[in-house]
Write a structure and sequence with these properties.
mainly alpha, single chain, 3 strands, 3 helices, three-stranded antiparallel sheet
Length: 149
Amino acid sequence: MKMIYFLFIIILSGHATHTFSGVYKHIDEHGNVTYSNIQSNDSEKIDLSPLIIVPSVDTEGIDDRIKTRRENNIIKEQRKEIEQRIANESTQLEMIKTEYKGGNPNRLGSERNYQRYLDRVERLKNEISTREMKLQALQRELEKLPEIK
């Protein structure tokens, strides 16, 4: 009885070794290529690199993540645009304030008439006020933007 089990185990192990021993390539006289896991007389063994198994991607909630990413990109673009407008407006405001000199700008050669000078001073004062209001509005607009998720 032990001998039968022993022979049975030897036969199974020999068959398993033969079946899973590798991959063999055979080219017949017509040039046809055949691959097999069974070795024949004129076949050659091929060493294959191990298979790489990549785990599946969690697709649950992918639409929400894509939507969130798009929204974040839109917010970033809006924030960038507003910050650029604030920088431009600040530069213009500083230039006007420099020219205004606290209400005493230099008189221009074309301002021999004192009223022209006063009109320009008033225009600069109004422009400073307008640009400061624009800056405040842009700052509020920037603060209203939602935070990036």
